[in-house]
Amino acid sequence: MEKFWTIPNILSILRIVLIIPILNQLKIDTETSNFLAFWLILVAYLTDFFDGLIARKFNMISNLGKILDPIGDKLLAITISAVLYINKKAPFYFFVLILSRDLIISLGAMYAINVKGKILLPIFAGKLTTAVLGVVLSLYPLKYSGVFGSGSLMRLLDLMIHYGTILSSFLLLTSGLMYAVYYFKNFLTTKKMER
Predict the structure, then answer these.
(1) Distances (CA, A) of 138 to 2, 15, 43, 144, 145
(2) What are the structural domain ranges in the chain?
(3) In sequence order, which residues have a C-beta less than 8 Å from that of residue 160 and are 6 or more positions away?
(4) How many angstroms separate the CA atoms of 5 and 11, rounded?
């Protein structure tokens, strides 16, 4: 039996739990709540960085962690992007790209576990996409926090959000396609050969 209460697993669970206050603050939608949402989103994505780092460095990698970590990532990204779109702060296509990519990964992972009895490891493109997405998604509520007023800093933030969304969209498409190819090569083709 693997240990449940390891530091990486606790960090993954914390990331999932943080979705609730993030969602609440985004729904309140005041300058203060947006500023708080910005910090909560940053903390949530930092847990993603540290749970993997600690798991590798201190040999705490577990099958449970391999499941909790991506679940936390996907719930976080989908929830934040959905609320931002509903509040008319993020474009619809951005939400659709996040949802579509995460569905591809989730369906492939479920197939791997149920049919092949394997837990897939994330690819580098997926981890890079998650990191960039974490920064960009946190910038959206920061824009509405009133911290930067309406001067040059706000224009800089607008540019960061604009180009960050474009970069994230490109990474979402690229990593989604790479995961699809990865699943096809490693599982679907293997199944045909076994027949």
Answers:
(1) 34, 14, 10, 11, 11
(2) 7-194
(3) 139
(4) 10
Q: What does the CA dihedral 59, 8, 46, 126 come to, rounded to 10 degrees?
A: 70
- Helices 63-86 and 7-17 pack at an angle, to 10 degrees, of 20
**What is the signed CA dihedral for 83, 79, 173, 166, rounded to 10 degrees?**
40
**Architecture of the domain spanning 7-194:** Up-down Bundle (1.20)
Residue reference for tokens 């027949």: 195
pLDDT profile of the chain (195 residues), mean per 10: 83 96 96 97 95 90 88 95 96 97 88 77 89 96 92 95 98 93 72 46
What is the separation, in whole angstroms, between the first and last Cα of the chain?
A: 34
